[in-house]
Amino acid sequence: GFCTNLLLHQTPRHILAQANNKTEILCDLKMEHTGMYWYRWSQERQNFEFLIFSSSLGKATYGANISQDKFSVHGMSSHTSYSLHISHLHASDNGTYYCSVSQSSQLLLGSGTQLGVVDVLPLSLKTTQAAPPKKPTRCVTKSKAASKKGACSPVVWVPLAASILVLLLSLVPTACRLHRLRRRLWLRIHRQ
């Protein structure tokens, strides 16, 4: 059986290449294996095709009708990273390519790389200078608005003036009482 897994990490996910050129697909393994298989799924032909097996010793075994000039595999000395090289690209190379390893009688597949081969690559879009990002707007409370407007803002001085006035008015009777007490005390001292 086939199953996808997290053991194999395949890059890139998509390739758009020009005919008659070459391309490369990388596959990293989480652990060392004796070799790597490569398969291609063709949407057009609706088949899953074995391309090549490359052993950790560097020996390659090709599938039926697979050109050795077109496909080659390069492995790293750690045996945890392999790359599939495809040359002389043609429209018939379109498909999704999978790296694979055999484990416990199962073929574990990578995430897949979709290859599209075109006669002419589309013109790359001109890079336009991006507008500077706008600062996010924040909610402003009345107190924040007051602090931004400054000390002369009515939002600040009206409540402040009202509270000072109430305080002064509440002090007037107390001040009058203190004045009378002081006067009585002064009169008593001078009578004696």
UniProtKB/TrEMBL annotation:
The Ig-like domain sits at: 12-110
Question: Which UniProt keywords are present, listed alphabetically?
Answer: Adaptive immunity, Disulfide bond, Glycoprotein, Immunity, Immunoglobulin domain, Membrane, Signal, Transmembrane, Transmembrane helix
Where is it located? Membrane
Predominant location category: membrane
Protein name in UniProt: T-cell surface glycoprotein CD8 beta chain
Pfam families noted in UniProt: V-set
Transmembrane ranges, per UniProt, are 156-178
GO biological process terms, semicolon-separated = adaptive immune response; regulation of immune response
- Topology in the membrane? Single-pass type I membrane protein
* Protein source organism: Apaloderma vittatum
A molecular function annotated in GO for this UniProt entry is: MHC class I protein binding
Q: Which InterPro entries match?
A: CD8B, Ig-like_dom, Ig-like_dom_sf, Ig-like_fold, Ig_sub, Ig_V-set
One GO cellular component term: membrane
Q: Which SMART domains match?
A: IG (SM00409)
